[in-house]
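I am hoping you can look over what I have pasted underneath with an eye to the fold:
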Amino acid sequence: METFVAKTLYGLENVLALELRELGASDVRPSNRAVYFAGNREVMYRVNYCARTAVSVLLPVATFSIGSKDDLYHGALRVRWSDFLDSGMTFSIVPVVNSKLFGHTAFPALVLKDAIADYFRKKTGKRPDVDTHNPDVLINLHISNSKVNISLDSSATPLFQRGYRVEQGKAPMNEVLAAGILMLAEWNASVDLIDPMCGSGTLITEAGLIAKKIPPGFFRSSFGFTRWKDFDKDIFIKVKDESDNKIKPSSIHIYGSDISKTAVRIAAANLKSAGLSDIVSLNVADFKDVRPPGIQGCLVSNPPYGKRISPPEIHSLYNMIGSTLKHNFSGYKAWIITYGKEFINNIGLKPCAKYVLFNGSLQCILAGFELYEGTKKNLSDRRS
């Protein structure tokens, strides 16, 4: 059993923690943009392949405090690097530094590189080379004030890069964020889902993967751990086979639309690449003209914020969204992610739930709305 750190996006820590428990992890502890967990290598392989809300999975190899650059060098020199690298392998270092001890982020990475090189020179007379493009081992160096954490990145390429996207629209949503929104909305593929502003289709594609139980790592060509010294191919094949055997047809349907013909074309290409064309329908339409496909379902959407994309009369747009939801989508649960309280207020409906999330660098609100005809009392009376 080893301790790992699964990195995620702000606001998705508890969602990821639930995923990790379901994937066999133990001692699961949510933190800030990360979740600590314990497991063996099989669990680590499974988390990389199956966790929809993990950005990367790190294996910590050293934690210590420093008061100078020399402390960083000597602390790194004490790591048994031969457990993870051979002199014939390559490595690269990704530094994340927030410390007054260093004036430049790249400098601590150079110190760590020198420590690794000197460790191998002393032990074998040869040192592994640095390869910043395609290293065998990707090393994460995190320094916060005087605390140093050195980890191996078992994912290497971030896990939101699923591998199914063949075309990219303007301001596409991060795949991890899209999956997290669906999980916060508690959509479990028991009802149809609709996105009337689907853009390049990230939300509906992630929904399709959930509906057909396709692992998010299914389309990826590689993971960082496959090049580690202790990689066990048989265990990874077992993890893949067990996960892939759960893929199945879906009885629900997903609907996507957008006012942009180009966006719909891109979404169609991505859905085809992901093998989801059979359960997702697409068409070109304005939000205000969209009608629900059934009497119950889930609506999830990521309208323009007026930041990266600036439609005219942004406030009128959100007024229209609220009016359309109220008059056309009775019986649905709607989830809208947008930038700031002002746009939520412009929708004109009272949220039943709100979550703070980040879409890129923008702090956003995911708001849920329970839609019904008449008053809330009428809804309660109908349910009773």
